[in-house]
Input
Amino acid sequence: MRIGIDLGGHTLIAALISGMEGTPGRVGIERTIAGNTPSGRCIADVMSAMAGTIAELARGHDVSGVGVAVPGMVDVDRRHNRRLPNFPIEWDDLDISETLSRELKLRGCQLPVAIENDANCYALGEGIAGEAVGMSDFIVLTMGTGIGGGIVAGGRLLTGAHGMAGEVGHVVVGGEKPCGCGGVGHAETLAAADGTSKRAEMAGLPGDFKELWAKRGEPLASSVLDETLDAMARTIATVYHVLDPEIVIIGGGMSRAPGLRESLHERTTPYLSRPFKNMLDVRISKLGNDAALYGAASIAL
Ligand SMILES: [Zn+2]
Output
């Protein structure tokens, strides 16, 4: 058994997962505990909440390790995070593995802890039990407040020279809008829920993506969504040309919009070079929020 944790800005979800050590039987979630991330998100409170949840899940089970999906960039050694954008500055360069292991020891739990970027975990999860089972080359885009990305190439998670590969949300699609990351003209500024919601509200439309999507037949809503879909299409075409994946999986809150897959397929095709046009295969995540839990558990030592 392993424990996978999805640490978000608002929610903290942990799952006990079986079948990952090559033992007979299917990989599956045995039990999940979902709670809120402590408000203020200070290190001591979050570590204590994670350790308490892990200890509760591990009780009475043979658990070999813990993996944590973190919402930010992680260092090449997969121990320290570089920056968690929605967490206090005290988290910068924190050795999460060490800190959480220490907290666990205080509760009588001796378990190794590994960390990975949350969108990377999402991609690994889809490869283990989701849309990409049996595939060696695929990309996940998690569409929500921002856009996360995870790339599996040649059967391995692409991490890059500095540990930061796969930041698909920061593909340059044009425009002058400053991105929260410090760059300009990134996909996330136009295609993520936050950017879309701002444009919608300026046009007097609902900022909520689900409500806006429901109005997509109306000209005003359609023009706002057009910019969102175009930025996503440019991003998907770019990753296809660079990485030649078998599929691109769309996950995250926005992925549940009915007909999104078909719209993206239609919008992406014109941007692709001829050999890629027939290969384009956009899918919607099969596991949803569970993907990151499976992925996190898979990196546990
Ligand atoms: Zn950016």
